[in-house]
Amino acid sequence: METIDLLIKIALIVIIFAISLVVAMYSTYAERKIAAFFQDRVGPNRAGPWGILQPLADGGKMFLKEEIIPTNATSFLFIVGPSLAILTACIGSAVIPWGQNLEIGGRVIPLQVTDINVGILYIFGVVSLGVYGIMIGGWASNNKYSLLGAIRAASQNISYEISMGLSIIALLMVTGTLSLGEIAKQQHGFWVDGYFSWNVFKQPLGFLLFIVCAFAETNRSPFDLPECETELVGGYHTEYSSMKLGFYLFAEYINMFISSAVMATLYFGGYNFPFMDMIHSPNLVAILGVVALFAKIFLFIFFFMWVRWTIPRFRYDQLMDLGWKTLIPLAIANIVLTGIVMTIFK
Amino acid sequence: MESLSNKKKQLEVKPLNFWERAYLPAIAKGLSITMSHFFKKPVTIKYPEEKREFSENFRGMHSLKRDEEGRERCTACGLCALSCPAEAITMQAAERQKGEENLYREEKYAAVYEINMLRCIFCGLCEEACPKEAIYLDGDIVPSDYLRKDFIYGKDKLVEAPLNQ
Q1: ipTM score of the complex?
Q2: pTM of the model
Q3: CA dihedral A150, A153, A156, A161 (to 10 degrees)
Q4: CA distance A239 to chain B (A)
Q5: Which residue ranges form the domains of chain B, and what is each CATH number?
Q6: Where are the domains of chain A?
Q7: How far is A104 from A11, CA to CA, in rounded Å?
Q8: I need a labelling partner for A341 at 20 to 30 A (CA). Which of A15, A238, B21, B133 fits?
Q9: How confident is the model over A14-45, as pLDDT tens digits?
Q10: Is the CB of B34 less than 8 angstroms away from the CB of A309?
């Protein structure tokens, strides 16, 4: 690999990293604002115009707070927990195709850090690592509420990963590839050969299952049992303070961003948008594609928040019931159905 | 046994049907309700900039009144302090000297007049007790502060501004 290619890759990584942090930062602000609008309030409006400096103020506060490690906590693991949570949240963005290739001065610049051919498996690996951050943090706190929250997180993530994986299998039967770049490319345009090209129209049930599992995997309401305030004080992060708590909260928002990006890529055409063939400049298409992808991501993030401020939390047994007795059989039925339809229309 | 009020209703608990068990129709309904609130005007009053209109008999911060010639009306009789159920008012009386007739209306006046705003319950009994129409609770909301001692309001904060200013 040439030096210039390496530099471009590093620049791309830094930009994506920065963007995911900024998006996560402003998701906290958006969450509070959107919650306020749903409840006929105005939300944070003191820091800067319309309160847009609120995330900076919150971040500053988090950094300045006292760092507390409880006496009976396992101090090494207590620090490892949040670090792992934020680390796994950040590395998920590596395989997401952010746009088509850019061409500058005869050099092709792919807007994807790496297009490994097992992209989806990589995402799944990262997601299943994510639960370790919560698990280790909750266990190391040496607090019963933290431990209960951590146990809930672990069992919830494991249960929902199964149906998530099964819902993806049906999608893979349609696409025939595990590479996210390839899947995005297949959904070119919006209307191709008399049918929608986006996967959500080919796999509606699969998408429904996937989005429900995505809510559970990111520990968002209505599946936010790991941090259930009414029962568990703060859940796995009860004992945490300062920036370690900040990392946990931040990791949740980054996870939400990444899972929105994954959903947009897998099911909603990624960087593709309707009428993209009518624009003849490839660079312009690439840039508009990035804009389209981000628009989809923000819509998904909005949807995450919309659901959070609408639906009450599931009870723990309802959660397990839904995961094991409803989603998994549905996912299997979806696979069979996809197989049958594919054999008939081959 | 028959109930006395006849208000008792026998509730019938039916098992959930398929769509209720599927959660999704209910969730969609909930989402549409929250979305309808999303575009409603917020009910918030942004307090320091905007203020809710007070009712006519609102009782806020006290003010010690002056008469039409700008003299303090209070004669330090102590009836307000006596009537105060929270014992928030203290005062020290002094005799009016020669040449102070333009400052104080009566021969006796309050040299020190203090109201502890943390004790005050804004009942308005001082207002009713006052024979000289010297104290009224016609001010604004008492502002917040950091220290307890700063809530003891003296004459500097309570007495009305002089007329000629």
Answers
A1: 0.76
A2: 0.81
A3: -120
A4: 30
A5: 63-158 (3.30.70.3270)
A6: 65-344
A7: 15
A8: B21
A9: 988 898 889 888 988 999 999 999 998 888 88
A10: yes
